[in-house]
Amino acid sequence: QSALTQPRSVSGSPGQSVTISCSGTSSDVGGYNSVSWYQQRPGKAPKLIIYDVSERPSGVPDRFSASKSGNTASLTISGLQAEDEADYYCCSYAASSYVFGTGSKVTVL
Amino acid sequence: EVQLVESGGGLVQPGRSLRLSCEASGFAFDDYAMYWVRQAPEKGLEWVSGISWNSVGVGYADSVKGRFTISRDNAKNSLYLQMNSLRGDDTALYYCAKASRSSGDMDWFDSWGQGTLVIVSS
Q: Is A36 within 8 Å of B108 when comparing Cβ atoms?
């Protein structure tokens, strides 16, 4: 149950796009179409923003999109806004358990 | 509105036990699997344990297997985590999270509580 690998930090200017990668193995990310993404603002609980690899819950802006290829999942934030500054975590199902990514801090310049 | 309220955290000595609770409201508790996720200070999220709607399916992270026990009482809309043989690396904010499905397989965590802090220290 090793954590999925994410870049420690990602940054972009308002209006730009940023992409966060989430690298796993065939036992987690690559083995199941069950990747979710969470946004965590400072001092707050995580919030679901993507489920089932690329589905957005109601209320999540469509500038958040995600995909998966092989053992790597990706989250893209298009049209970056100041309010998107937060930590982002991927999570994958892994046969009766779940594994989170190491987390990525998104900074809006 | 889904509400999850954790309680039971605190300062505990290494080797001792603690029982966390999560009281749920705003949804049909007995229709969904439930989870515990923790976050050590200034660290990332770690899945700890999960339980299916009917308590038949349970799972644990390797780091807590044999020491922690998850349970639920559907009549009380409550989730529990019994933590025994606590260690310093169990120090974390423990979140209760609601599943999107009943079984807990290939799931996601669609609602979270605010967490309860557990500090393991002598």
A: yes
Beta carbons of B104 and B50 less than 8 angstroms apart: yes
3-state secondary structure string across chain A: CCCEECCCEEEECCCCCEEEEEECCCCCHHHCCCEEEEEECCCCCCEEEEECCCECCCCCCCCEEEEEECCEEEEEECCCCHHHCEEEEEEEECCCCEEEECCEEEEEC
Q: How far is A96 from chain B (nearest CA, A)?
A: 6
CA distance B91 to chain A (A): 17
B7: exposed, middle or buried (Cβ count in 10 Å: 0-12, 13-18, 19+): middle
Separation between Cα atoms, residue A63 and residue A84, nearest integer Å: 10
For B113, phi then psi, to 5°, come to -80, -175
pLDDT band with cut points at 50, 70 and 90 for residue B34: very high
pLDDT digits (tens, 9 = 90+) for A57-93: 999 999 999 999 999 999 999 999 999 999 999 999 9
